[in-house]
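Input (structure):
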């Protein structure tokens, strides 16, 4: 499964976006906000389209403009933390699959992330296999027709 990803994290390069691969028609789009360099490389190698942003505000703008399928968001982003990112996505009614990436692993940290609107809470360092599984499951869950 191919997906588009957005990476948002503070770096010396400042805010911005770049595509690591060419857009494939119909490919799922994922927004990722975290360690841009390493995660971008890993996810690109897994054939996802990756977009990056340097902070939460830029990441939020890109997620909506690109109509991302999912967002992998660092909780400790500058200008808008991951919790606020999730709250704003949910306030807009977006069905974006949200995964929190964080160094905070206490049960109350997970609860806070879920309450903000994240579906998943991953504690760093993350397993590449676990991240790939969660991305695929989240995208598939979003694409399934609703059942009544």
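Output (sequence):
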């Amino acid at each position: 499964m191919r997906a588009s990803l957005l990476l948002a994290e503070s770096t010396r390069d400042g805010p911005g976006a770049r595509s690591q691969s060419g857009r494939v028609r119909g490919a799922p789009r994922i927004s990722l906000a975290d360690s841009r360099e390493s995660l971008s490389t890993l996810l690109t190698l897994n054939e996802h389209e990756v977009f990056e942003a340097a902070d939460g505000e830029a990441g939020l703008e890109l997620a909506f403009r690109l109509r991302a399928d999912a967002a992998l968001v660092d909780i400790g982003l500058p200008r808008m933390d991951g919790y606020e990112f999730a709250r704003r996505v949910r306030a807009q009614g977006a069905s974006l699959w949200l995964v929190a990436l964080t160094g905070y692993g206490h049960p109350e940290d997970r609860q806070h992330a879920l309450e903000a609107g994240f579906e998943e809470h991953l504690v760093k360092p993350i397993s590449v296999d676990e991240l790939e599984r969660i991305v695929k499951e989240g995208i598939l869950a979003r694409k399934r027709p609703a059942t009544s």
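Notes: Residues 37 and 76 are 17 Å apart (CA to CA). The chain has five helices and six strands.
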